[in-house]
Amino acid sequence: MRTAIISDIHANLPALETVLADIAGAGVDRIYCLGDVIGYGPQPRECLQLSQKFEVNLLGNHEEAVLFDPIGFNPRAKAAVEWTKQQLMSSDRPREENASLWKHLDSMKQTHEEGDIFLAHGTPREPTREYLFVQDCKDDPAKVNELFESYGPSTAFVGHTHVAGIFAEGPRFITPKEVDGKYQLGSGNSIINVGSVGQPRDGDPRASYVIVEQDQVEFRRIAYPIEETMRRFKRTPLPENLALRLTEGR
Ligand SMILES: [Fe+2]
Q1: Distance, CA 128 to ligand 1 centroid (Å)?
Q2: Are 100 and 48 in contact (CB under 8 A)?
Q3: What does pLDDT average to over the chain?
Q4: 161 alpha carbon – ligand 1 mean position (Å)
Q5: Which of the listed CATH numbers 3.60.21.10, 3.90.470.10, 3.30.70.1150, 3.90.1150.10 matches domain 2-248?
Q6: How far is the CA of 227 from the centre of ligand 1 (A)?
Q7: CA 213 to CA 216: how far, in whole Å?
Q8: What is the pTM of this model?
Q9: Where are the strands (E) in 49-187, listed by range?
Q10: Which of 38, 85, 149, 224 matches a 20 to 30 Å C-alpha distance to 239?
Q11: CA-to-CA distance for 28 and 1, rounded, in angstroms?
Q12: Ligand 1 centre and the CA of 57: distance in Å?
């Protein structure tokens, strides 16, 4: 069974379509999404519609912000949340279509456990709130060790920071490059960040996701037409810096 695990699409439809085409060509059986399908980007409706076909959809902090209240968001992110909300309630679209999008948002769960893997958006113990940063391995190793103990299976997959890589015992952070894009599970606990489809922040603007098959995790980076996403930003009142950061992968 080959499973694609994707996260943090952030309403970037050209990035999502390019990743889905790559997935279709990679003999994948199912797609699991770790949340933040929406927020920041120009096409929340289209991305949510495509995500309705995924086998697992977890709640991200941006879905939570749209459903409840945008807690811990800066003013710019808050404004993007409000705009996204309006898009999902658009009176130009059929009422049933809006209702199905909200029902879909409402159905997203916080975590998913299956065999030897555990899935969450942020961290296993605080699925939509907590960040696990690369520097935590140095600055707060106790936190990383606590996180390893906070869920049952030995491997967890997360998103949220938009930085792909492996948190392994030590704790230490291993970049996908260090392992040539392929990581073998089974040697102790690990928390794997799949990176972001629609707003990577590790200096590489290409979309990031992983394919898992048995004990093997393959990190993939896919170039997509960023200019197209930028053009679509221009048709919205969303702040320009949200479009510009895509070109730098920051
Ligand atoms: Fe995110």
Answers
A1: 10
A2: no
A3: 96
A4: 7
A5: 3.60.21.10
A6: 21
A7: 5
A8: 0.97
A9: 56-57, 111-114, 117-120, 155-158, 165-168, 172-174, 182-184
A10: 224
A11: 8
A12: 14
